[in-house]
């Protein structure tokens, strides 16, 4: 029997990757995307992995690095911005809404499944942080998904609440109420920071949060350090760990052993409830998988997983 190619072998067969600007529609609005493909033309439709970022993230914040590696291994990669973020349409800007972003994931899957150059039976999802939970929810309700990569995932909002402390919870409640008041008065959203130093008021204030987000941000990035107060209640009640038992496809969990943003133990519990889970625990914190030596290890393992589950045997 011919073995499947390893990521290194697949990458050597396709050393060059091209990126195309594409778009799709979600709820009547355009989502901007990049489609990464191997330059070598193949006679059959390609496998594809769909990627999008976490809390307020945009595609240029290191998702291009992951997508290029997957494409070099022979797997097309669609990287998109949610509505209201980055290069996509949607007003007001920075409107983080979990239900809307799940709609965007559904629309992205529908888009690649209708492209003649993509095999709809070999479509995978890749998510990180908040989107690491969104891809779990999407896969639980869409049996077309062939595989999932869930990296440092946000899986249980209720377990995240205690890290805010009493003062942080109070500030979050005030931000929520001020934003709801703005909605009722048809005013612009009330925003608060996504990241800030320890002791400040922001969605993420761990010692690595502010430096980690800014390290991902390239010159000219569209990312903005603000998020609407209304998402506070949504995030607290969002618990994709409750639906992972319904996922029918293989799931790769990339978990950081010192994750104090989405919590190591929460991700491990979600993985234990997932029927077909492959769990990898890496040294470091929430932002370390995006950079340097740990990035190389994580992306190699994720590529290997996608190759095994999406590519046919060599030869």
Automatic annotation (TrEMBL):
Listed Gene3D superfamilies: alpha/beta hydrolase
Domain named Serine aminopeptidase S33: residues: 44-285
Residues in coiled coil: none
Highest taxon listed in the record's lineage: Bacteria
Keyword list, A-Z: Hydrolase
Segments crossing the lipid bilayer: none
Pfam families assigned to the protein according to its UniProt record, in alphabetical order: Hydrolase_4
Single GO MF annotation: carboxylic ester hydrolase activity
Family membership: Belongs to the AB hydrolase superfamily.
PANTHER family: DIENELACTONE HYDROLASE DOMAIN-CONTAINING PROTEIN-RELATED, POLYKETIDE TRANSFERASE AF380
Protein name as annotated: Lysophospholipase, alpha-beta hydrolase superfamily
Organism per entry: Rhodococcus koreensis
